[in-house]
Amino acid sequence: MRFDVAPTGQVMHLPNRPAAPEKPNAADGGFAQVYDITKARRGAPDVPAAVWDEVDRAAQVASDLEAQGRMIRFHAPEGNGRMRAELVDSDGRVVRPLSLGEIITIGSTEPPSAA
Fold it and tell me: Which of 114, 1, 4 lies closest to 66 in space, CA to CA?
């Protein structure tokens, strides 16, 4: 199995959610917790703002690669293999293999961690 990560042509800037205010506890004489029933039915968790920041950063990297006529192609492991990635040109020709650590640090000034 393989899949290509190609940009959508634009960077999505999703709104950051403000931190939820502290809710009083009903047992302490405060109001009961209020639930968004639609969200609860979908099982959708709140997504932290830091995650949206990373999504925006990834979209920007994909857009930058597209402007250079390149994209990253991932190959899912077969059996007990390891995930592989390649930098390819717009014709699908491999420019060079990429380590997964290298992909994580694309667009970052931080060195890769050993974690």
Answer: 4
Whole-model pTM: value is 0.51
Q: What are phi and psi of 39, to 5 degrees?
A: -65, -40
Tell me which residue of 6, 27, 15 sits closest to 88, measured CA to CA: 6
Q: Which helix (H) or strand (E) holds 2?
A: strand 2-5
User: Where exactly are the structural domains of the chain?
Assistant: 1-8+34-115
- Asked whether 85 and 74 are in contact (CB, 8 A), the reply is yes
Tell me the per-residue pLDDT of 19-31, one tens digit each, with 9 for 90 and over.
555 555 556 666 7
Look up residue 15 and give its DSSP letter.
P
**Sign of the CA dihedral running 86, 14, 34, 20:** positive
Cα separation, 96 vs 86, in Å, equals 6
